């Protein structure tokens, strides 16, 4: 199957596994990734993970600022691909681009479509408290993750799993399914299934406002927010007027607690009242410091029962 030519579109780490898997079975004739962008506190211009992998593999690379141009379409047509494959590329492909491949244009999407169409399906699944997620391989159309389903498989989401945990599960599954999908299409055995738009939910990008904890929310919602925003971008509360990031903890069933009030603080954790119970913080991060457990934090910070977090 090495004669099958694929142009791969992808940008973050999630896409690396799919790229690696495809290039072992087929010919990845070119890679398209986002332009180098500022990253980290120093805003240093860095290449995407997919760019680095393409360079290491010696695959021709293109980083268009805009893809809806005649120049890009001409370049893509010059590659003569059988398939286009996208995985977290970051832009919707135009009908003109989707018409280029000889056989099909496929997308590796990190959800059980039609649930969680959009840019942040992994985060949204955990934030919503979903008990499962998965990978869907679709044949792309003009819409946002609306194309026919070629293959789909699920993985469970544990009660304490983070978005990072789910990401790692789905990278492996996506790499497996995309090769199976291309192989099935080439063999003529692939079966397309239309999505039910009535079941669709959206997964918009995360916002800054969503990073702030509201202690009046239910304990379950708070637990889902903390694990859903880990390892990026993180949830925070306020302590002495400064941001205090909360990275892990566990929900507890208590009654009569005031929202945001510290009920107890010790080596077992920092117990904080919520809208319907309490949450025990186990890992947190003061400004400019590393992530630490509750005991380490309390050695350097006076936090007594009765104190209010969030102000």
Outline the secondary-structure elements:
Layout: E1 5-10, H1 14-25, E2 27-32, E3 37-39, E4 44-46, H2 49-57, E5 61-62, H3 70-79, E6 83-87, H4 95-98, E7 104-109, H5 121-127, E8 132-139, E9 148-156, H6 163-187, H7 219-228, E10 235-239, E11 242-252, E12 262-266, E13 269-273, E14 278-285, E15 292-293, H8 294-300
Helix pairs in contact: 1-6, 5-7
Structure, explained:
There is one protein chain. The chain is α/β, with parallel strands linked by helices and 311 residues long. The protein has helices spanning 14-25, 49-57, 70-79, 95-98, 121-127, 163-187, 219-228, 294-300, and strands at 5-10, 27-32, 37-39, 44-46, 61-62, 83-87, 104-109, 132-139, 148-156, 235-239, 242-252, 262-266, 269-273, 278-285, 292-293. It contains 8 helices and 15 strands. The chain has 2 domains: 5-199, Formyl transferase, N-terminal domain (Rossmann fold, 3-Layer(aba) Sandwich), CATH 3.40.50; 208-300, Formyl transferase, C-terminal domain (Methionyl-tRNA Fmet Formyltransferase, Chain A, domain 2). Strand 1, helix 1 and strand 2 (27-32) form a beta-alpha-beta unit. The model has no long low-confidence stretch (mean pLDDT 96). The strands form 3 sheets. A 7-stranded mixed β-sheet has the order 5-2-1-6-7-8-9. Strands 10, 11, 12, 13, 14 and 15 form a 6-stranded antiparallel β-sheet that branches. Helix 1 (14-25) packs parallel to helix 6. The chain is elongated and about 65 Å long.
Poorly predicted ranges: none
Decide which structural class fits the backbone.
alpha/beta
Instruction: Give me the Rg, rounded.
Output: 22 Å
Largest sheet: 7 strands, mixed
Mean pLDDT: 96
* Secondary-structure arrangement, i.e. CATH architecture of the largest domain: 3-Layer(aba) Sandwich
Measure the end-to-end span. Answer: 61 Å
Please tally the helical runs, counting DSSP H or I stretches of 4 or more residues. 8
* CATH class membership of the largest domain: Alpha Beta
């Amino acid at each position: 199957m090495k004669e099958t030519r694929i142009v791969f579109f992808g940008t973050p780490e999630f896409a690396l596994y799919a790229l690696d898997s495809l290039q072992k079975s087929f010919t990845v004739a070119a890679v398209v990734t986002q332009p180098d962008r500022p990253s980290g506190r120093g805003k240093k211009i860095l290449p995407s993970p997919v760019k680095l992998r393409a360079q290491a593999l010696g695959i021709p690379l293109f980083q268009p600022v805009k893809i809806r141009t005649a120049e890009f379409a001409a370049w893509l047509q010059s590659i003569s691909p059988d398939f286009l494959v996208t995985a977290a590329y970051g832009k919707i492909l135009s009908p003109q681009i989707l018409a280029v491949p000889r056989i099909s244009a496929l997308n590796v999407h990190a959800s059980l479509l039609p649930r969680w169409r959009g840019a942040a399906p992994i985060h949204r699944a955990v934030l919503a408290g979903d008990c499962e997620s998965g990978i869907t391989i679709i044949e792309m159309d003009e819409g946002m993750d609306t194309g026919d389903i070629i293959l789909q498989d699920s993985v469970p989401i544990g009660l304490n799993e983070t978005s990072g945990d789910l990401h790692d599960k789905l990278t492996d599954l996506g790499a497996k399914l995309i090769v199976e999908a291309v192989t099935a299409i080439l063999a003529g055995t692939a079966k397309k299934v239309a999505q039910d738009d009535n079941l669709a939910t959206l997964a918009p990008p995360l916002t800054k406002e969503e990073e702030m904890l509201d202690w009046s929310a239910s304990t379950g919602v708070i637990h889902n927010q903390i694990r859903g925003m880990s390892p990026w971008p993180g949830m925070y509360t306020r302590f002495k007027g400064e941001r205090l990031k909360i990275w892990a903890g566990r929900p507890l069933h208590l009654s009569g607690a005031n929202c945001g009030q510290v009920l107890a603080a010790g080596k077992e954790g920092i117990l904080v009242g919520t809208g319907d119970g309490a949450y025990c913080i186990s890992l947190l991060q003061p400004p400019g410091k590393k992530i630490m457990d509750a005991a380490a934090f309390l050695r350097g910070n006076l936090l007594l029962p009765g104190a209010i977090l969030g102000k």
